[in-house]
Amino acid sequence: MASLFAQFGKLALIVCIAVGTCKSETCKDLLSSDVKTPSGRYKISVPSEATVEVYCEMGLNGGGYTFLSPQSLSDITAQDLASMFKDRKSLLIRVWRTDGSQPYAVLQQLEEYAHIPLKLGLNEHSDHEAPVNLQLGLPYLYVSFLPASIASAMPATNGFNVNGFRNAFKPCDRNPSSQITLFPNFREVEFSRYHAKGATCDNLISRLAQNPSGRVMPQEYFMFAEMHFGGCGCYDDTKRLPSVVGYSIGFR
Fold first, then answer.
1. What is the per-residue pLDDT for 7?
2. pLDDT at 25
3. CB 144 within 8 A of CB 127
4. CA distances from 95 to 136, 154, 209 (A)
5. DSSP 3-state assignment of 10?
6. Contact at 8 Å (CB) between 21 and 247?
7. CA separation for the pair 45, 68 (Å, rounded)
8. Cα–Cα–Cα angle for 89, 228, 104, nearest 5°?
């Protein structure tokens, strides 16, 4: 009987994949149900009872990463996002290049900050420094590595690991920025002209890796992004990167 139930559950998963109506809360849930679940678009249920379309990356870095489109960011609540973000030790960034490729990087805390969970917020940045481009409006997806209380105290290091590379710098002032933020910019507002070039931002691009399959995500999942690491780090955004169209960030 147990075997019959297991076979029925597997059949139900195959059907939901085929028609795009899987009622899981995250891509990780889908992958846990069947390790052969392929990467692609799925509809998942969230605690607010909304059903949202997401892209699931099922291969890179063990898979199970949920990516949200600009429309999905508008359809969920901050509580929905919190319920989906369970692995607070890694994020997966995909970069859409002008040549059509979409290399990736696994983002993690520096070793000395491994005890600090990554921050992922929807339309909020509580306890962390604000993004520069708030004039672009809601929604926005906010990622931060260090709380403002730590980053403003001029710690010995700031930064993050990118694909295992230690991307760190020594802060020279109390600017607490340590974040990457994605903006759909539905209102078509002009982005900030602020710019502070630095190796911390450059290393994110130079350390990207190509996914072996060459598989790409739908282009509508990519957005304008700013990267700001204060105190002699850097500020850059996707409008200033000549070979980049947009970023997308997945979580699990």
1. 43
2. 85
3. no
4. 21, 30, 10
5. helix
6. no
7. 13
8. 50
Q: What is the pTM of this model?
A: 0.91
d(C-alpha 81, C-alpha 216), whole Å: 24
According to DSSP, the β-strands at 178-183 and 158-162 are: unpaired
Question: How open is the CA angle 54-71-108, to the nearest 5 degrees?
Answer: 55
b/e 52-71 (16+ beta carbons within 10 angstroms → b): bbbbbbbbbbebbbbbbbbe
Q: Looking only at Cα atoms, what is the longest distance across the chain? A: 65
Length of the chain: 252
Is the dihedral angle over the CA atoms 167, 238, 99, 145 positive or is it negative? positive
Say which amino acid occupies 12. A
User: What is the Cα–Cα distance from 116 to 89, expressed in whole angstroms?
Assistant: 8
Which tokens hold the place of 237?
């955004």
Mean pLDDT of each 10-residue bin along the chain, 252 residues long: 42 46 81 97 96 97 98 97 97 98 98 98 98 98 98 96 98 97 98 96 98 97 98 96 97 98
The amino acid sitting at 1 is M
